[in-house]
Amino acid sequence: MTGTGEAVVFWVLGTVSVLAALGLIFARRAVYAAMCMAVIMINLGVLYLAQHADFLGVVQVFVYTGAVMMLFLFVLMMIGVDSADSTVETHRGVRVGGILLGLGLGALLCAVIGQVGTPAIVGLDAANAGGNVQGLGKLIFGPYVWVFELTSALLITAALAAMVLAHKKRLVPKVTQRVYSERRFREGHYPAGLPAPGVYARHNAVDTPALLPDGTPSELSVSPVLEARNQVAQPGQFEEIEEAITHEIEEGRAR
C-alpha cells in the first residue's frame, strides 16, 4: 500500500522529471539539455530511494549522474558553453539517418517491452529476501535482460551523438608554417624571427632573456605570460655566480 508521503514524492518528482525530459528534447543549447538530463537522473535516484531500492538509487546518482554526465561535460568544454549551435549539416544524411535510427530504436523498445513477461508481484520484502543487489540482478539478467541491453545501446548512441556535437567543419584552410613565414616577410614584422631566450649556455632557459649588443635584456625574447607572472630571470642575478666561478678558475691556475 502506497503511503501519503511516497505518493507526494512520486507526483512531485514525476512532474519535474517529465518537464525536464521535455526540456531535454526541445532545448536548443547543449548546456540546457545537460542540465535537464542531470535533473532527471537525480529525480530517478530519489524515487528509487523512496521505493527502498537503496543500491539502485545510489548507483543512479553516482554512476549515471556522476560518470555519464562527465561525458556531456567534456563535450560542453570542447564545443563551448557560449558557442551558438550551427544549423549547417557538416555530414550528409545525418538528419535522415538520425530519424530512421530513432524510429528503429523506438520500434525495438516497444517490441522488447511487449515480449517481456511481467513477473508476479511478491512485495518488496519477498523480492529483497536475499538482498537488494541479488534481487536486482535476478530481474536485470532475467526477464528484463533485453531491456538492459537496449539501455546499453542507448548509451552508445548518446556517446556517438556527443562526438557529432563536438565535430566542427573547418571553415578556412589550415595555416601552415610556410604561410606564416611568407606573411611575416610580407608584413615586415621581424623577418629574421624573435631573439631566442637564454643568456649563458648553462642558463639557456625560456625565462632568461637574451642580451642586446649594449648588454641590456631583450623583452622580445621572453613570453609575455612569464613577464605577467614576474617569473623572468634577470641577467644580473648570475653575475655573482660568474664572478665566483671565475675566481675559482683563477685560484686553480695559481696553484
TrEMBL record:
Compartment list: Cell membrane
Protein name (record): NADH-quinone oxidoreductase subunit J
Keywords in alphabetical order: Cell membrane, Membrane, NAD, Quinone, Transmembrane, Transmembrane helix
NCBIfam families in UniProt: PRK06638.1-5
Function statement: NDH-1 shuttles electrons from NADH, via FMN and iron-sulfur (Fe-S) centers, to quinones in the respiratory chain. Couples the redox reaction to proton translocation (for every two electrons transferred, four hydrogen ions are translocated across the cytoplasmic membrane), and thus conserves the redox energy in a proton gradient.
Reaction it catalyzes: a quinone + NADH + 5 H(+)(in) = a quinol + NAD(+) + 4 H(+)(out)
Listed EC numbers: 7.1.1.-
Membrane topology of the entry: Multi-pass membrane protein
Gene of this entry: nuoJ
Gene3D superfamilies linked: NADH-ubiquinone/plastoquinone oxidoreductase chain 6, subunit NuoJ
Enzyme class: translocase
Keyword field contains Membrane: yes
Family: Belongs to the complex I subunit 6 family.
TM stretches of this protein: 6-26, 31-50, 62-81, 93-114, 144-166
Signal peptide: none
